[in-house]
From TrEMBL:
The lineage of its organism: Bacteria, Bacillati, Bacillota, Bacilli, Bacillales. It comes from Calditerricola satsumensis. Homotetramer. Gene3D superfamilies: Nucleic acid-binding proteins (2.40.50.140). The keyword Membrane does not apply. HAMAP family: SSB (MF_00984). Keywords: DNA damage, DNA recombination, DNA repair, DNA replication, DNA-binding. Residues 106-149 are annotated as: Disordered. This is Single-stranded DNA-binding protein. Signal peptide: none annotated. One of its GO terms (molecular function) is single-stranded DNA binding. The keyword DNA damage applies.
Amino acid sequence: MLNRVILIGRLTHDPELRYTPSGVAVASFSLAVNRPFTNQQGERETDFIDIVVWRQLAETCAQYLRKGRLVAVEGRLQIRTFENQEGRRVKVAEVVADNVRFLESSAAAQGSRTDDPLEAPERRPARFDDDPFAGDSQPIDISDDDLPF
């Protein structure tokens, strides 16, 4: 049996960090994920999916993620049932995430912030528009002593 979910979307609100009575961190947020097709009016519909993150990952998400950030979430789908205040049974579907990847820097999402670990150049992911061959037509200044052959 397999229960695996992978989502890419934007946060609809800042993560809410709480702690259980035993001190375990838990954060929750909602992810807006576009559907891969358009409706009859030609508009793309969006699903809003609840995400739950535990322990150190919860604290990291609460510290660095903000509304509008693009993230990839990997985890499992969980359906839980409870009784609401009116005594009615309610089913809730949520993704319990075990991996959250920040897909853009906070500067790209909302201006400049310096406490984001992705801001450091050595940790920043390569962008698709970065061309490694941009200066390809320029001559290279290298001596014969630098060549290994």
